[in-house]
Amino acid sequence: MAAALLAGALALVPDVSRAAEPAPASASASALSTTAAGPASGSGPGSGSGSATLANGERLELIRGDAGEAAAPGFRVVPKTGHRSGRYAYATTGNKLSVQPVGEREPLPATTITTGAPRTSAPAPRAAAASYRVTIKLANADHIGPIIRVWNRSTWMSYDVAAEQYGSSGTIALPPGDYLTAGLYTSWQKPGHLLTKTFTVKDRGLTVTLDASLAKETALTADEPTARPYATAVWLSTPKGGMIGFAGGWGGATKVYVTPFTLPGVSLRIHSLLVKDGATANNPSPYRYDLFHGFDGAVPATPKVQVRTADLGRTVTTLRSAGQDTTGSLLSSPSVGDSSGAGISTPVRIPSTVTEYMTPGIAFTRMAFHDGGPRFDGVPRTLVKGANAGETFGGAAYAVQTHESAATLRGSRLSVYEPWGFGDAAGHRGSDSDAVQDFRLTSNGATVAEATNLSPRQSFSADLAQTQARYQLVHTVRHTGKPNRLTPRQTNEWAFTASGYGVDTRPRLTDVALRVDGLDIRNAAGTSPVTVHAHATSRTPYATAKVTGLEFSLDDGATWTALPFTAAEDRASAQLTVAQDTRFVSLRTTGEDDGGSTVRRTVIRAFAGPAPLTDENVGATRISDVAVNGRRVIAPATYDDPYAPPYTVRFTATDPSGIAATGAVLYRGAHDRPDAVIPVQVPQCTEVDATTSTCEAGFWLNARTQLGRNDLAGEWRLAVWAYAADGQGFTDLNTAGTALILRQTRVTIKAPTTPVTAGTLFTISGIAGINDWSTGRWNALAGKSVKLEYRKPGVSTYTTAATVTSDSTGTVKATVKAAHDANWRWLLPRTPGVGAAASPLAFVDVR
Predict the structure, then answer these.
(1) Do 28 and 459 touch, CB atoms closer than 8 A?
(2) DSSP conformation class of 707
(3) For residue 331, which of 45, 376, 565, 620 sits 20 to 30 Å off, Cα-Cα?
(4) What does DSSP say about strands 227-237 and 243-248: parallel, antiparallel, or unpaired?
(5) Across-strand partners of 466?
């Protein structure tokens, strides 16, 4: 699978790091190690995925295909909640993948993981008689922390270069031979550079200079005048799959300069996403250009390519919500057949539709992310020129997406691995980092093994009796994130016959997948009937399965009503008219195969009804003492400051059994149809006592990249929810608190700098400005009332001397009589949607 670097929640995909996970009944390991970062987390068989923490606190995730293939796995970087996509340099050396945050104010170290891919590199040769010192030097480079690699052009073995963290060069000892070197560098808010040069080592050391002044800007553009690059990946690929490159960035930070070269077997790859100018997470682009181009064997002197929209494939992608509007990201990764590549993403509102224009003939693997919620993985998709069929992510009903190797029986050891607990009706495998799952295996009423609160990436194992016996396996997946208002719980109940007598096989398990037609983009039913489809399959080759029952519930599974259905072979369907006062519909289906194995799958809140989503309280769970930003006004900036602390959300949650999980989200407008949303991190809760927890969560806010519309300034509402520890109670409050999010303002001041004579008149002026969320620029603030105030030396309070109205240029001016020494300032009071501001103090000396 092509390497996939997530660059956006993003938006890329803002995501949230989980707390430490409980020990599993059995957890499978992955070949993953880390350096310069936190500990890695394991993965299950077939996924080959693991994670590590980057030096900037974001999460690096390794993603491999189902078969666990060894060739260059993909990876993505998950930004912190509320942060836009960062910028990352990455490189492979054999089976090591290094990822380094770049473009930061301070140099940050790389995080290195072991991918398990075949080694195509050799360790750096030790200095010996046949090795010579080579210095790789950057010239004309304004940089922080270069990454340098060297390849032998005969064997394409790769070598790390010991680069100076703050310097401009690196050194390596190399034997005689022909080599290619590549260096990456960037600096704070400046473009990146990918520099290359060939050289030959003969019988002495040498210095190789990578000259940035020779690099040319590379880019992919379209003939759509309103389109601009949102995210870009550029990487160098060698014949043996080695790579080095950049991914990520936003706006002007996407620019990358490369050195033109001619070198057979070496390619420069460019993957670029274009969106409409001014698009943000809450004001997303109606279209998306997904472009790929490769310069194979030679990079021209002008490495820019413009494509015609008419030459691209066109499709419409629909992103449905899990019952709650949120922001998210759509990631794509090109598969170009050389075990290299990088994936990037653009922000999307969920739910929404987006028209996509894609380079035809290239297989793009795509993922759809809900901020703070589930992820849906698409299969590689190749478009042809012109119109193509659309694709929908997130259609109900959500349920476990299985594959044949998810359950295995090796000897007497049964292993079950079900990481795809949030798959959609179209068959896209999905996952939810905040989900937990329980397993219980019984036989003849006796418990064989059980495990609770496992993460989605942990497997369950148990030893079976050597004699043949009948087993019952119950698998429950629970979701507690607010974007997952649909399918908070699903249960699979299997019955099968097995023997643990020295056989390597698969247990005979039957599955039934559900799909509901006739729902809207929020997976809600309307006045017309919906059609429920069920499809039975068996995990045993050549076995046949059928659907044996369908039921629905309008009270979260307390009572069930049989749903008459028509069946044909392994499929069944039924129509259901949903009453107008229905909030949610749960579904239950049963199936069996020709070997006597059965399944009952229950999906609580499989889809929504027509009724609005009001507050909910079940049991004694309560929320109180809610405060956003300490109840202070929020006036966000229109730029990213990686060192800025997050805004906070705090509240208290109580239940007689204690609190298991909580969450929150900020929204503007109506709860069911918000104008905008701001994701909040998963709260960290501290127990006060057995029944009460105080919870705190953070969120970052860049008004330009997340909001992008001035009319979103004003009062926002905070929805908060909490689940009881015993699973019997929960509360979900649509408006638990409020927050004022206002536009930043500023006022300058100009006053006499030389002493003035008492009794004479003097003038104080200034200019009032306001931050424009749609552009990030400061505009004149006209027609606003501004106070001129003074404070005498030794006095703590201000006195108003004049009140004036700013003119069309934002200018304010007042003439006053000199009476005494004083510090003067302009004060702009808070008005609807506009924050308050005070100018700097200006001291006027009166004599």
Answers:
(1) yes
(2) I
(3) 45
(4) antiparallel
(5) none
DSSP labels for 360-417? TT-EEEEEEEETTS-EEEPPPEEPPSEE---EEESPSPPB----GGGEEEEETEEEE-
Torsion angle in degrees (nearest 10) through CA of 126, 132, 136, 137: 130
3-state secondary structure of 493: strand
H/E element, 34? none
Contact 741, 716 (CB under 8 A): yes
pLDDT for position 240: 80
Q: What phi, psi does 43 have (nearest 5°)?
A: -145, 175
Cα–Cα distances (Å) from 347 to 6, 371, 656, in that order, read: 11, 10, 41
pLDDT at position 166 is: 65
- Asked whether the CA dihedral 427, 429, 431, 437 is positive or negative, the reply is positive
Instruction: Select from 533, 557, 417 the least CA-distant residue to 473.
Output: 417
Alpha carbons 345 and 275: distance in angstroms, whole number: 11
Cα separation of 344 and 11, whole Å? Answer: 10
Q: SS3 helix, strand, coil % of the chain, rounded to 5?
A: 5, 55, 45
How many other CB atoms are found less than 10 A from the CB of residue 29? 11
Nearest to 479 by CA among 370, 365, 616, 373: 373
Give the pLDDT confidence score for residue 612 in this predicted structure: 87
The answer to whether the bond into 9 is cis (omega within 30° of 0) is yes
Q: What is the predicted pLDDT for the residue at 110?
A: 76
Neighbours of 615 (CB within 10 A): 13
Task: Output the pLDDT for position 317.
Answer: 96
Task: Please report, as a single letter, which amino acid is at residue 387.
Answer: A
**Total residues found in the chain within this entry:** 847
User: How many H-runs (helices) and E-runs (strands) does the chain carry?
Assistant: 0, 65
CB 551 within 8 A of CB 565: no
Contact 404, 46 (CB under 8 A): no
Distance CA 93, CA 41 (A): 22
The pairing of strands 74-78 and 59-63 is antiparallel
φ/ψ region of 288 (left if φ > 0, alpha if ψ in -120 to 50, else beta) reads beta
Interior CA angle at 91 toward 179 and 376, to 5°? 145
Cα(162)–Cα(778) distance, integer angstroms: 44
* Full set of structural domains in the chain with CATH: 117-393 (no CATH), 404-608 (2.60.40.1940), 616-740 (2.60.40), 745-844 (2.60.40.730)
Distances, alpha carbon 352 to alpha carbons 209, 286, 518, in Å: 49, 9, 17
Instruction: Give the residue carrying structure tokens 């008149």.
Output: 761
For each successive 10 residues of the chain (847 residues), what is the average pLDDT?
Answer: 28 27 30 30 38 77 49 61 69 76 72 65 55 91 78 89 76 94 80 91 93 93 94 87 74 76 92 91 93 94 95 97 87 73 82 96 89 83 96 92 79 88 89 87 94 89 89 91 80 90 79 95 94 93 92 96 94 96 96 94 95 90 96 90 86 95 92 91 93 94 91 96 90 94 96 95 97 94 96 94 96 96 96 93 95
- Give CA–CA dist 163/169, Å, rounded: 6
Residue closest to 379 by CA, chosen among 394, 362, 367: 367
The amino acid sitting at 375 is: R
Helix (H) or strand (E) segment spanning residue 847: none
CA distance 78 to 60: 6
* pLDDT the model gives residue 250: 54
User: Contact 679/373 with Cβ under 8 angstroms?
Assistant: no
How far is CA 417 from each of CA 185, 475, 500, rounded to the nearest angstrom?
41, 11, 18
The strand ranges marked E within 153-205 are: 158-160, 162-163, 169-174, 177-186, 192-201
> Residue 397 to residues 82, 478, 576: CA-CA distances in angstroms?
28, 15, 14
- Tracing tokens 């990764």 back to the chain, one arrives at 333
Closest residue by Cα to residue 22 from 340, 439, 537? 439
Instruction: State the Cα–Cα distance between residues 776 and 772, nearest whole angstrom.
Output: 5
